[in-house]
């Protein structure tokens, strides 16, 4: 709630880097990349008697409202519109603000979330309120808050920018969001139980190892620049010194054995694909690129950058294999790629006159023999490093690349590889359910393109054996090409 409680007006940016805007018809809301438009600015009104609830008023003087009207018949998600404040229906204009790392979620009166939809029309750029049922749509309900300054003598807004980020008006220590300054600990003490969950993994930790879902460790390469994954967790290169940011909670820095910091750079890992390089650097001035926010996810942790990306351990074929990037996992198959097990290998000694003499001795700071002590720590999930090294898990199933077709069946950039998932079965119905979970779309038709005439045809037979890699096209049930399939008796 601290993102909004001192703000007079805001802009809300979705995971697609598009802004929530109010249309001129004074009814519809949608997403747009034009964040400079007045339509993208929303006045914040606090709800009296409810600590975390707000109303958002558009430039048209109407309120962001959650309705019970389906966005599309037969599909999940109800419409979000602009509406006047009416007695008896005030609850439909109220949104509960829930913080998620450096972003927020807006929960409606019925427990669903304000969602920015992607995909093909009519989903593209639409706004609904819904629950993110699949892992691939979890980020669709997350919003970045940019604050604007409301002029008292004008109906227009003007942006107030500092270091590339907007700041609260009036300024206060609690409100300023800066590239170099995560939120101050003094402002988050009241909510420490909620926001410190990810820091539990690093409590009193002086050095740690980070183990990915591939059972490989985050390693600082000998070139003193690259960062990779490796199964050799006993190497000194797998050891990362934990530093807290002075004056701030819930943010850490990780320093390699070469004295350099784990850094989220702006360099693309590969041109034309998502994911940016993670490096070891020693900047002259420590900034937000070397700061990571731990977020608890069950018994593991995610490390989030100031810009909303996560430290990700990549799998697959070279050059992806063993690489480490920072990115947002949009697809189900990559959700676990941002999860890390934390093995604490050295702790800060707390001097105490009543220290238990029978407690095991703490490892020396320059010692690499930390395995016995690591296993004794309650907040380390390591069971047996040796067994993890000797029996790596291997993904089973075939890789299926896919595109989502337009209304007429055409596919943009079909020559490119597209999205992918790993599928272990062979039945078309099972594959269809997998795609529905992956994309968040319902009733889709899985098709392949004929090599003879280039036309799309629905898959009807089981998939070929031997886990052959495939490429398919997903057709929406309400599209023109789907109706043509029905007329031809293909469905």
Layout: helices, strands, pairs:
Layout: E1 9-13, E2 19-22, E3 29-32, E4 42-46, E5 53-57, E6 63-70, E7 78-83, E8 95-100, E9 103-107, E10 113-116, E11 127-130, E12 144-150, E13 157-159, E14 161-162, E15 165-166, H1 185-188, H2 192-195, E16 205-211, E17 217-220, E18 227-230, E19 240-244, E20 252-255, E21 261-268, E22 276-281, E23 293-297, E24 300-304, E25 310-313, E26 324-327, E27 341-347, H3 371-376, H4 385-390, E28 398-404, E29 419-423, H5 428-439, E30 445-449, E31 456-458, E32 470-475, H6 480-487
Parallel strand pairs: 28-32
Antiparallel strand pairs: 1-4, 1-12, 2-3, 4-5, 5-8, 6-7, 7-11, 8-9, 10-11, 12-13, 14-15, 16-19, 16-27, 17-18, 19-20, 21-22, 22-26, 23-24, 25-26, 28-29, 30-31, 30-32
Question: Please, could you describe this protein's structure?
Answer:
This protein has six helices and 32 strands. The model is unreliable at 151-196 and 351-395 (pLDDT under 50). A seven-stranded antiparallel sheet has the order 9-8-5-4-1-12-13, with no helix packed on it. It has three domains: 9-178, Trefoil (Acidic Fibroblast Growth Factor, subunit A); 192-390, Trefoil (Acidic Fibroblast Growth Factor, subunit A), CATH 2.80.10.50; 398-487, Ubiquitin-like (UB roll) (Roll), CATH 3.10.20. With 491 residues, the chain is mostly beta strands. It has helices at 185-188, 192-195, 371-376, 385-390, 428-439, 480-487; strands at residues 9-13, 19-22, 29-32, 42-46, 53-57, 63-70, 78-83, 95-100, 103-107, 113-116, 127-130, 144-150, 157-159, 161-162, 165-166, 205-211, 217-220, 227-230, 240-244, 252-255, 261-268, 276-281, 293-297, 300-304, 310-313, 324-327, 341-347, 398-404, 419-423, 445-449, 456-458, 470-475.
């Amino acid at each position: 709630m601290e993102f909004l409680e001192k703000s007079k007006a805001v802009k809300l940016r979705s995971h697609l880097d598009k802004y929530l805007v109010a249309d001129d018809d004074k009814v519809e809301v949608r997403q747009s990349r034009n964040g400079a438009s007045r339509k993208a600015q929303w006045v914040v009104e606090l709800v009296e008697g409810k600590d975390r609830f707000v109303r958002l008023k558009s430039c048209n003087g109407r309120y962001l409202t959650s309705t019970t009207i389906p966005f599309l018949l037969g599909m999940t998600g109800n419409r979000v519109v602009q509406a006047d404040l009416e007695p008896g229906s005030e609850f439909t204009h109220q949104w509960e603000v829930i913080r998620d790392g450096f972003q927020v979620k807006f929960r409606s009166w019925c427990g669903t979330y304000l969602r920015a939809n992607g995909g093909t029309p009519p989903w593209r750029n639409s706004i609904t309120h819904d629950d993110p049922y699949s892992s691939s749509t979890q980020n669709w309900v997350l919003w970045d808050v940019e604050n604007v300054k409301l002029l008292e003598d004008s109906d227009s807004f003007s942006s107030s920018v500092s270091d590339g980020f907007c700041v609260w008006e009036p300024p206060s220590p609690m409100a300023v969001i800066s590239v170099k300054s995560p939120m101050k600990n003094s402002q988050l003490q009241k909510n420490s139980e909620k926001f410190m969950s990810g820091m539990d993994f690093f409590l009193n930790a002086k050095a740690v190892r980070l183990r990915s879902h591939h059972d490989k460790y985050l390693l600082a390469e000998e070139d003193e620049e690259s960062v990779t994954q490796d199964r050799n967790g006993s190497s000194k290169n797998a050891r990362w010194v934990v530093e807290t940011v002075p004056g701030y909670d819930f943010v850490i820095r990780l320093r390699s054995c070469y004295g350099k910091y784990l850094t989220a750079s702006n360099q693309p890992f590969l041109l034309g694909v998502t994911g940016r390089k993670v490096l070891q650097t020693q900047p002259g001035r420590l900034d937000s690129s070397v700061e990571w926010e731990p977020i608890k996810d069950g018994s593991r942790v995610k490390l989030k950058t100031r810009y909303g990306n996560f430290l990700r351990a990549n799998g697959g074929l070279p050059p992806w294999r063993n690489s480490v990037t920072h990115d947002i996992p949009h697809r189900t198959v990559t959700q676990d790629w941002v999860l890390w097990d934390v093995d604490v290998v050295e702790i800060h000694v707390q001097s105490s006159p009543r220290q238990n003499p029978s407690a095991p001795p703490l490892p020396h700071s320059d010692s690499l023999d930390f395995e016995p002590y690591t296993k004794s720590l309650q907040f380390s999930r390591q069971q047996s490093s040796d067994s993890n090294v000797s029996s790596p898990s291997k993904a089973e199933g075939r890789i299926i690349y896919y595109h989502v077709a337009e209304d007429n069946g055409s596919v943009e950039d079909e020559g490119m590889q597209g999205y992918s998932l790993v599928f272990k079965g062979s039945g078309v119905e099972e594959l269809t359910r997998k795609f529905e979970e992956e994309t968040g779309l319902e009733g889709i038709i899985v098709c392949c393109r004929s090599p003879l005439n280039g036309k799309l045809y629905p898959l009807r037979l089981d998939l070929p054996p031997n886990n052959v890699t495939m490429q398919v096209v997903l057709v929406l049930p309400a599209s023109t090409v789907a109706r043509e399939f029905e007329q031809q008796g293909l469905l």
